[in-house]
Structure formats: structure tokens, C-alpha cells
Design goal:
This protein has about 250 residues and is α/β, with parallel strands linked by helices. The protein is about 30% helix and about 20% strand. Strands 3-2-1-4-5-8-7-6 form an 8-stranded mixed β-sheet, with helices on both faces. The radius of gyration is 18 Å and the shape is globular.
Length: about 250
């Protein structure tokens, strides 16, 4: 298996670069960040990573193409602890800059790069603007019209197969990876090269090292995965499928 390359938008202190390095198969190439103290930390830990500045000034057709682009876009306007301006807010609205950069790179490389994208954010994104913001995230990523769940609630795990990309999302909690706190985040994977997003995100827990604490948690996770694949009815957007649905 060849080594994959990674570019990190909204890099912070290099969390995605660190995760890439841990795999032994993904090489971080560049990072976009504007906070100098964060940049200093990343430079210390990953001296080979190129720093490319602000996402607002970055051109996707001018930087080195990479296999994977990660973007934990600012969460303040989506968080339930904030003013809930959503994607219209100055900070969380920077999500659109990431989409622009991805599109520019894909256009410049005839659709070859990136193959995968990973978006990370707070669970508050599900309810922001009464669910419309997460719908907008899915539509911008997949380039497909996505209906709202008839229940009015987005589930913690699901899949969408759109015109441009296969996407899957799931809420993960840091407490199950040795962090002494509950820290839930949405992780959304998009695959431009096939239909592997669900396979990547819903791998067996034992393979990932994620161990639910109870039998009930294991059953809940298994149920989420089974429902997220969808039925023929859910692919058409019908039915009350709160977990997720597939569409074309």
C-alpha cells in the first residue's frame, strides 16, 4: 500500500497531522493555521510540514495536491454554548472556504486530488438552525439535494451517497480513547474515489481499539450502523429514518 499524503486546514496544534503520523501510512504535507502559538507547536512536532497561512487566502489550485484534506472548521457559531449564528457566523462560516479549496484542487487535478476529506465538528451542528446547517454541510460536500429527516432530527450516525462523493458521519467520544473527559465530536468522511466512507468510519470497534463500556452501548452502535446504510424507502427520502439515509 502506497503512502498517502495529507493537508490540514484549520490545523490548530496539528491534531490531524499527529493522527496521520500514528498510522504509519499517511504523511502530513502542509497545514493552514493563523494562530502563531499553534503554528509554533506544529513546527516543533512536525518540522517537515509546510505552513501555508490562512484558509481565506489559500488557493486550492496553487498548493501541493494531497490524498486527504482534513478540516475541523471553527465550531463557535455551531456550538450550543455559543450564540448559534450557525454557518452564517463569521467563524463557522469559514467551512465554505474549505469547500472552495477542495473544489479548486479537484478542478486543477482533473478530479484526482483529494480522494478523501475529513470534517470534524461539535454535535451542536446537528441542531444549528433547526438542522438546516448540517443539511447544508451535507449538500455542499456531496453536491446533492438532501431532504431533512421527517423526524426533524439528525442522527449521530448516517450515510449519504451523493452525485459527487460518498459521505458518512458518526459522533465519537474521546473518553473511549483514553482521554479523561467526555468530548463528543462529529467526524464526517467523504470519499470522492468510491463508496468507502462507511467502511472506513464504521469499521469493527475491536479493530479501531474503541471499546464500548457496556453491552447496551455495543447494541446501540450496532443498531446505528445497520440503520445508517438505509433501505430502498430511505434512499428515496421517504420514511422516518432518523439515523441517516442514502440518496442520489
Amino acid at each position: 500500500m502506497r503512502e498517502l499524503t495529507l493537508g490540514s486546514l484549520f490545523d490548530g496544534i496539528g491534531g490531524f497531522c499527529y493522527a496521520a503520523q500514528l498510522t504509519g501510512r499517511i504523511k502530513p504535507i502542509w497545514a493552514a493555521e493563523i494562530e502563531q502559538n499553534c503554528i509554533d507547536i506544529t513546527r516543533y512536532r512536525f518540522p517537515e510540514v509546510m505552513h501555508v497561512g490562512s484558509v481565506t487566502e489559500l488557493k486550492g489550485d496553487e498548493i501541493q495536491p494531497v490524498d486527504i484534506i482534513t478540516f475541523g472548521s471553527p465550531c463557535q457559531d455551531l456550538s450550543i454554548a455559543g450564540q448559534r449564528k450557525g454557518l452564517k457566523g463569521n467563524r463557522s462560516g469559514l467551512f465554505m472556504e474549505a469547500i472552495r479549496i477542495i473544489e479548486e484542487m479537484r478542478l486543477a487535478t482533473n478530479g484526482k486530488y483529494p480522494t478523501f476529506i475529513i470534517w470534524e465538528n461539535v454535535p451542536g451542528a446537528f441542531s444549528s438552525a433547526n438542522g438546516a446547517d448540517f443539511r447544508a454541510v451535507l449538500e455542499k460536500i456531496t453536491k446533492t439535494s438532501i431532504p431533512m429527516p421527517t423526524s426533524g432530527e439528525w442522527a449521530t450516525a448516517g450515510m449519504v451517497r451523493g452525485a459527487a462523493v460518498d459521505a458518512a458521519w458518526r459522533v465519537l467520544d474521546a473518553q473511549f480513547w483514553g482521554v479523561p473527559q467526555r468530548r463528543k465530536r462529529i467526524y464526517l468522511i467523504g470519499d470522492f474515489g468510491g463508496q468507502r466512507a462507511g467502511e472506513i468510519l464504521f469499521k469493527s470497534e475491536s479493530v479501531l481499539g474503541y471499546t464500548p463500556k457496556s453491552k447496551e452501548q455495543k447494541q446501540e452502535i450496532a443498531g446505528q450502523f445497520a440503520d445508517s446504510v438505509g433501505t430502498e424507502n430511505s434512499r428515496a427520502g421517504g420514511g422516518d429514518n432518523r439515523v441517516g439515509f442514502c440518496t442520489r
